[in-house]
Amino acid sequence: MARTKTRRASGGREARLAARRAPLTEAIKPVHPGLSGGRYKPLSDGDVDKIWEAAFELLETVGMADAIPHCIDLVTKAGGTLTDDGRLLFPEKLLNWTLEVAAKEFTLYGFDPKYDLSISDERVYFSTAGAAVLYLDPKTRKYRDTTLADLYNMARLAHHMEHIHTFRRTMVPREFKSARELDLNTAYACLAGTTKHISASFFSPDHVDDVVEMFDMVLGEKGAFAKRPFLSGANTVVVPPLRFAQDTCEGLVAQVRHNMPMDVLSAGQAGATTPAPLAGALACGLAEAFATLCFVNLMKPGHKVFLAVWPFVSDLRTGAMSGGSGEEAVLEAASAQIINARGLPSSVAAGMTDSKMPDAQAGYEKGVTVALAAQAGANLICESASMLASLLGTCNEMMVIDNDMLGSIARGVRGIEVNTETLSVQAIRETVHGPAHFLGHPQTLARMQSDYLYPEVAERLDPSNWADLGSLDMTEKASLEVERILAMEKLVHIPADVHNDICKKFPIHLKL
Q: What is the rounded CA–CA span in Å between residue 53 and residue 349?
């Protein structure tokens, strides 16, 4: 009898393990891209309205300095005013028009259509981002300069991270002396590494033209990129407080011409380049980003734009950035709430730990900041994976660990479904009058994959089994996962002959 029971228990366990190992269909996965957030609201509706009113007042009465001629021309023709001291004022009528015509939803294309993302309402997606100049090797605990090979490998790694939905460049390769080489090689390395949607920044509008020409070559047809633009521009459009970044604004013109989606991003630092009170930081950043949204819509009403209000936080004792602080967490969540309240696509920054290593500090700072932003319903949460050292550093192992974190946060965003089946009254009745446990119940086996998410590198073994397998910590397990993925066959969506032609025409240094 004992052996029979053992075989039955083993058989049930084997069935559960087989079900666990089986590939999941998209329909049954416990989390998927674009889950709806919006449950967390750090601001009341009245507070949201007050911040919008303050932002509009700033644009009407203080305005923006250093507008480029094209922006001045469009805004003044629409009723705006250029003051004697060069500040461009935006009338309320124009601001309200922008709210009406700005895109409220759109598709963010991947190079591969299976990675297309539907941007609308409070649907949540996770993205990398950053301009790190240092790369961490956790085995040596030392940082070194970032390289193009690092960026390419990180794009390859992100391609296999289920909970990273878009890849925005995470670092600035340090080997390039010219801005053109940097921009072209950065965008190309992102495309070569993944067929998900990608994003990069540009120093010059000419570089936008060059990148689009390269991508048209990959697609095999001039103008093909504009039909399905799979790269978006990441644009820091202001020099706070309330001044346009002129070179970036010139780049917006080229991006609109090529039908390229974009962020229009304000990233002031509270207590330094924006007010220290958090509400003032939000109002100032919103005014700056919204002025740029107005400019873009005057060029092309309804262009695909994320309104990106990214107020950063200073440690006011030292002036140093504090990307993992509680203040940063609530600011980015509030930013999402403010933008979504007007139906506009939102982009925020969360996951910017101040820790220099993938340690407990990194874990709690990333977890708190990303979770609040996701629960607030931010459409695109940038900086959400791989970043360290207040955005100065990045690390492959950190990306793998963060992928686990993002999956867990997404499961929280999904919430709990309550219906006749999930309330389980019948299953409870059967179990109470039967085996007195739910391990073998059909509902348990049916729900173990659809309701529960299992991490890739987080540790769940008991101490004895953990010791038997080498007593690896999470970073060591992540290193093994990095090695496994980078040893896999590379993507081949760029034909070798096209790559060679691109390298002949443009200063591309990537070896495929």
A: 23
